Amino acid sequence: MRSEKIKHYVSVLILVVMIAAVAFLILNLRSSDDTHSKEVGKSDVSKKSSLDDALTRQTTIGVNNLKKDTSRKKLSDNIQALTKKKFIGAFVATSGEKIAFAGQYGYANATLKNTFKLNSVFFVGEYQNFLNTAAIFKLIEKGKINSNASLKKYIGVSSNLSVKSFLVNGSDLYLKRQNINRVTANASTRYNLKYLHKYSTKPTGYVSADSLIKAVLISKIMNMSYQRALKALVITPLGLANTRVYTNTATYVNDVKSYKYSTDNGTVLQDTILPMDKTYFATNQLQMSVSDVLISSSKIINNYYFAKKYNVNFEKSINNINGNYKMTTNDFSFYSNVMGQMFSLKAARNGSKMLLTVTNYPNREINIQSESTKLFDILKDD
Fold first, then answer.
1. Which structural domain, as residue segments, surrounds residue 344?
2. Which of 12, 119, 295, 348 is the most buried (most CB within 10 A)?
3. Over 70: is that where the pLDDT of 338 sits?
4. Max Cα separation, the chain?
């Protein structure tokens, strides 16, 4: 009997020890993940600027705060021309830390009768690459990445390129578009990079793996999924309120819908919603509000996010992405056209003046980049 009791006590003791060990392991893993996240971001949360307040304390669009009478007249004439051309969309211009002028036409979501607002959320296309690039420079600044070390060291990719060379010149790694989403499991830090192949020139049917590599690098260094890493490293520190990675499981009332070109006796009809194109990991899956695009670009351009000493290589990296970006010592411009949603961003290199124009309707009489240039010229001359 006594022997049986001893065996029983020993069994219970072993069970308790095993449970305690498992609990300790789980807590340790969570603590490690959270500590790493806080370590990167705890001192990096940008202070709210007056521009943050100006863009977030109001949601409606419709302002003309230009100083010069001549500028106000030019803006009025330009708005009349846009109205005549049946422009659908919105534009917001900032000067310093104030909204200089803004206007909106048509619906962001015609079904809900939602007009364009500062918190209207749209697909930003390659702007996701811009944010990923900035995030990597932030990790370099924090000492989490050695820019002279090889990519292979951090993510195991078959390339001897240094991180710096990769950012500035791009890689020679490509993959088939249909394999992009096979590289990752959404909530994981495990990536299957066997789909990436090295070529001297891009083969037919392949796309550059550069944007994907940046997302994988961020995820690996942060030791968390890309979605969580983006939130910890970019969204929270920059104070972005309406930025999210798209999933087909959730919709929001402030989502912008895209519309097919349709008119009736000269009247624009927003009556046919365009079907969604497929989203690809780290490529075209990011959605942001009008205000979040302006706030993020302002803070990055103004070096709220990382130090000025990284500007030269950051500019080279941005100009290397594709033809949609242009960054010089004086100006920054970007254009995106994904999911039937187009937007143009123009800014002075010091961030003192910025203009964002967005549309969800393919008006054949309007070139959004040309119209943005006209509006930005008015802003610069004021």
1. 39-130+137-143+238-381
2. 295
3. yes
4. 102
